[in-house]
Design brief:
- By secondary structure, the protein is mainly α.
- Helices cover about 45% and strands about 5% of the residues.
- It has 26 helices and 7 strands.
- The chain has helices at about 45-50, 50-55, 75-85, 100-110, 120-130, 135-145, 150-155, 160-170, 220-235, 240-255, 265-280, 290-300, 305-320, 325-330, 340-365, 375-395, 400-410, 420-430, 440-445, 455-460, 470-495, 495-500, 510-515, 535-545, 560-575, 580, and strands at about 5, 15, 20, 30-35, 40, 65-70, 90-95.
- The strands form 2 sheets. It has a 5-stranded mixed sheet, covered by helices on one side. The chain has a two-stranded antiparallel sheet with strand order 1-7.
- The longest helix is centred in the last third of the chain and has 25 residues, at about 470-495.
- The radius of gyration is 41 Å and the shape is elongated.
């Protein structure tokens, strides 16, 4: 820390509590200066020789002892004592902690060059410009002390000089940083001294871009706002570094922000959150989405205002693909029945969808095509996040189905290549809301596309007693269709079709060929073994299926029909009464298709005959 010593006479001031007098002086005190509850017993001449204000307050004639009351001097009695010692030529030590108080007090007492050459104001200004403002840490300390001496510190430009000094150093190229700084964050290997010498000469240590972040966390919010604004104005520091600085400052001042619960704050905390929100760089990615959501959680709990909340929601929507489900679980304020604020998240997702559509049109040149464009990577990611969020809020028994469905529908269906996450959320909602009506269940399950369920999800769905029978049959149908397509592709890949086409004169289908056609009415339960549907009927059908193979490996018959499959499901699950009574309209679940009729088996002569 820089310091300056003024004067050469020994300090003979004696402080007796509320009374300060000069010891060892042969002259009797002829003036009493009272500042607050402290009295200074001094002499007129030293004060008149340095202070223009005393020249106005002390009469020029008369030798009587007078008393002067000063109640508004900046810095109070301590600052006045420094100025008084300077008037007596005593040793005075100035440093970063008391120089602003002494400078403001000297300005109040008018200790300028007009009164005396080389006066206190001049000497302090030289000390500030040549030492304090050239030191990084001293500049920060001095800036922190200016708040106690307002408006004097602002009127004499001390605050602006401090801010410019700090902002200029923070904007300096890292290769020119030669002063000490505090950096307890994740340090570079070279800063830890782990770099190995090269050719016997140690390489120059690298300075991280955010070297200045930690030192500024000691400032109050008003001074910090002024410094960050000045740094932005210079335009030399990257926006992500500024965002990281604001994040570090917020966690230092509000450590509970990173926790699940937010402490009850007062008006000061609310004002700080609003200021921090306004300081955030407008560029996307300058701060993490997780940090923005923590700020939104705090501003929502402390009711910091609608404008602050909307600004944060808009920023979050721009980078929603970076969010996690845990960060989105923002609790509701007092008075709401739900645990989490679904309306807020719904608004954020809507804003994200609008921005994504706008970006898509911008990249396509503003052209609107009739076909459905492929979703962006960020949209697919957000769809997964929304499904995960829905699975969490579904655990709340007070979550309305309207809000659940509206949030799920905000993301378009083509943004979900796989509907497993949505199925999990729907299943969780059905589990936590067992009294849900038939129409609500139908609406809920209508969100899901059975064709986009994975085999594992299908295996779970066909055994899920909470799902309506209509949905289960749709899952079975699409799973059977998918299995048939896979079997056809596999058969073509091993060349079975080439053997069939090589036979001359075969113009009609044989029994084996007809058995290879998978009609909708022949929904075989062979797939149910993979789907963990190994009930008695399924097992028998599996055995019959394996026992009736011909010499060419084809299935001769014995496959279970969909009527048997549905009857088995209804007998095992329909005892609850829900499916047998509420799904009477499911007789036309599967689409009606035209299929080739079975023909009697014909005897095919072998080529050897």
């Amino acid at each position: 820390m820089k310091f300056m010593k003024l004067g050469s006479n020994p300090d003979t001031f004696q402080d007796d509590g509320n009374q300060v007098s000069i010891v060892g002086s042969e002259l009797v005190s002829d003036i009493t200066v009272r500042i607050g509850t402290t009295k200074f017993y001094l002499h007129k001449f030293p004060l008149l020789s340095k202070c223009g204000r005393f020249q106005k307050l002390i009469p020029t004639t008369g030798d009587e002892n007078i008393e002067i009351h000063i109640h508004d001097i900046p810095g109070g009695a301590k600052a006045f004592e420094l100025c008084a010692k300077f008037c007596y030529g005593m040793i005075v030590t100035l440093n970063a902690y008391n120089v602003i108080a002494a400078r403001c007090a000297a300005e109040y007492l008018e200790m300028n060059e007009t009164v005396d050459k080389g006066n206190l104001i001049y000497k302090i200004d030289v000390f500030l410009s040549s030492s304090i403002f050239r030191s990084w840490k001293d500049s920060i300390i001095v800036l922190g002390t200016t708040k106690a001496h307002l408006p004097w510190a602002e009127d004499i430009k001390l605050v602006s000089h401090c801010i410019d000094s700090v902002a200029s150093k923070a904007s300096t190229d890292t290769s020119k940083v030669e002063w000490s700084y505090t950096y307890n964050r994740k340090k570079l290997p070279t800063e830890n001294g782990h770099d190995s010498p090269w050719n016997g000469v140690k390489q120059q240590q690298l300075v991280p871009k955010d070297w200045w972040v930690e030192d500024l966390t000691d400032l109050d919010i008003d001074s910090y706002k002024q410094v960050i604004t000045a740094i932005k104005a210079k335009g030399m520091v990257p926006k992500d570094v500024i965002g990281e600085a604001i994040k570090a400052y917020t966690y230092k001042k509000l450590p509970s922000l990173s926790k699940v619960s937010m402490i009850h704050g007062d008006a000061k905390v609310r004002a700080m959150l609003v200021t921090i929100t306004c300081l955030l760089p407008s560029e996307k990615g300058s701060v993490s989405c997780s940090f923005l959501l923590k700020l939104l959680r705090a501003t929502n709990l402390l009711k910091c205002g609608e404008m602050c909340r909307k600004e944060l929601m808009k920023r979050i929507a721009r980078q929603l693909e970076e969010a996690s489900v845990a960060d989105l679980l923002i609790p509701t304020v007092d008075g709401d029945t739900t645990v989490y604020d679904l309306d807020m998240i719904h608004s954020i997702v809507e804003e994200f969808v609008r921005q994504d559509q706008k970006n898509t049109q911008k990249h396509s040149g503003g052209e609107v095509n009739d076909h459905v464009s492929a979703p962006s990577a960020s949209m697919i990611t957000v769809a997964k996040i929304v499904d995960g969020y829905l699975a969490e809020v579904a655990k709340d028994p007070n979550t309305p189905i309207v809000k659940f469905v509206n949030l799920a529908e905000t993301v378009s269906g083509n943004s979900r290549p796989v509907h497993d996450g949505l199925y999990r959320a729907i299943d969780m909602y059905l589990k936590e809301h067992p009294s849900l009506g038939k129409s609500d269940k139908k609406r809920l399950c209508g969100l899901m596309d059975c064709k986009k369920l994975s085999p594992d999800a299908c295996a779970h769905a066909v055994q899920n007693e909470r799902l309506p029978l209509r949905t289960v049959v749709q899952v079975l149908y699409h799973e059977q269709t998918r299995a048939s397509a896979v079997a056809t592709i596999r058969a073509d890949s091993i060349g079975i079709g080439s053997y069939e086409s090589s036979r001359s004169g075969a113009t009609t289908n044989t029994e084996d060929e007809w058995d290879g056609v998978m009609a909708v009415e022949d929904l075989s339960l062979t797939k149910t073994t993979k789907l963990d549907k190994c009930d008695t009927a399924g097992t028998d059908a599996e055995k019959n299926h394996g026992g009736n193979k011909g010499t060419n490996g084809r299935v001769k018959g014995g496959g279970a029909t969909p009527k048997k499959a549905l009857g088995k499901m209804m007998s095992s699950k329909g005892q609850t009464g829900e499916r047998s009574s509420s799904d009477s309209s499911d007789s036309a679940i599967l689409p009606r298709q035209e299929h080739p009729k079975r023909t009697p088996a014909r005897s095919v002569k072998s080529s050897a005959a």
